[in-house]
Amino acid sequence: MKTELEQVLPAEIEKRSFEIITEELGEKKLLPGTELIVKRCIHTSADFDYADNLVFSDGVVEKAVQAIRSGASIVTDTQMAKAGINKKKLAEYGGQVYCFMSDEDVAEAAGKNGTTRAAASMDKAAEMYRASAHDPSEEGMRKDSPGLIFAIGNAPTALVRLYELIQEGKLQPELIIAVPVGFVNVVQSKEMILELKDTPSIVARGRKGGSNIAACICNALLYMMK
Amino acid sequence: MKTELEQVLPAEIEKRSFEIITEELGEKKLLPGTELIVKRCIHTSADFDYADNLVFSDGVVEKAVQAIRSGASIVTDTQMAKAGINKKKLAEYGGQVYCFMSDEDVAEAAGKNGTTRAAASMDKAAEMYRASAHDPSEEGMRKDSPGLIFAIGNAPTALVRLYELIQEGKLQPELIIAVPVGFVNVVQSKEMILELKDTPSIVARGRKGGSNIAACICNALLYMMK
């Protein structure tokens, strides 16, 4: 074997990785309280662009942690992100992870409306939200109903539909993790989420992101909880 | 809405994305026959580094396609990659996707041997290979047994163990997709795979890669098949 391996115990690999990331970030200023999220995105991609492109709305980390603690569930737009999110940890607080992308009713609705399955799956999430948040005997939302966190790693069309649902008053997410990746309307859809002043958000500005980034931001939040 | 969206039909989004990638690659020379793999990696990450860091062993695309056609299965080191691989398409040729990372016997073996679960899961794959490839009445491998493709998107320790198993003659993969991401032994483990002259490989040289890249290379190969 010509190659020299660094001797690191299995349990120490992640710690050592974060040390290297911290070293290489050097003097780079990160928004206080968001460091673990930024570093985990770099850890999951080996891409230091995430030190520059992540945008956090005011107090979003505290709000997100509070939402998870209150039992918020996560809706995502890919089975990959669902697979990557630490579902056991989330379940400790009562939440679960939903992905409606493979559901038959979603495929049907998308076909009928000439939209994407990702957009249709946001409509399905909004229906679930209405059903869980409304007490049929009263007007408006029940204040004690656990909310929804959206972790969008693939489809800008999901973000566009979320924006519309929020503008129409049909949905008020606890948090939008807006990190789709790609080339068609990805940049624009993220800017739309940044316009929503009353919706906490974590956005990877620009083209980059992905299911791995969506899952890793969820996990970073979960691992920050004591 | 201040943001201007590009009008693209749902069914056209991927095609338009690949057009943009092709435009931006410009005069960049890609190895003939590998273009769709490189472009899909860029599509899944918005990271043009994949135009430079992917290394293909001689004739690997033809060999990989042939292996899939013969019914090869895929072993991966993350549930995320397993979730992302087009299992329906693979099943058309008889293969399936395995990930042993959450298996109890793997966790036990890793604990006992002081190794990672990723390394222990490669041992489990090698056992499966031996059991399926050997005819107990004969010496050596059965030539008609469908082989294994390894898609490693996370753990360099999986690659190191694969290297050892191959050197010990316990495993001969049809293909290794060596694209773990990270900072500890990632670069080195990929160089080890590049040393294996008789093992077809697709390697993302350097730190970059990930479960998304592992899945996307598998899918690129599947989508190239007619």
Automatic annotation (TrEMBL), chains A, B:
<feature type="domain" description="Cobalamin biosynthesis precorrin-8X methylmutase CobH/CbiC">
    <location>
        <begin position="12"/>
        <end position="224"/>
    </location>
</feature>
<protein>
    <submittedName>
        <fullName>Precorrin-8X methylmutase</fullName>
    </submittedName>
</protein>
<comment type="pathway">
    <text>Cofactor biosynthesis; adenosylcobalamin biosynthesis.</text>
</comment>
<dbReference type="InterPro" id="IPR036588">
    <property type="entry name" value="CobH/CbiC_sf"/>
</dbReference>
<dbReference type="GO" id="GO:0016993">
    <property type="term" value="F:precorrin-8X methylmutase activity"/>
</dbReference>
<dbReference type="InterPro" id="IPR003722">
    <property type="entry name" value="Cbl_synth_CobH/CbiC"/>
</dbReference>
<comment type="similarity">
    <text>Belongs to the CobH/CbiC family.</text>
</comment>
<dbReference type="GO" id="GO:0009236">
    <property type="term" value="P:cobalamin biosynthetic process"/>
</dbReference>
<keyword id="KW-0169">Cobalamin biosynthesis</keyword>
<dbReference type="Pfam" id="PF02570">
    <property type="entry name" value="CbiC"/>
</dbReference>
<keyword id="KW-0413">Isomerase</keyword>
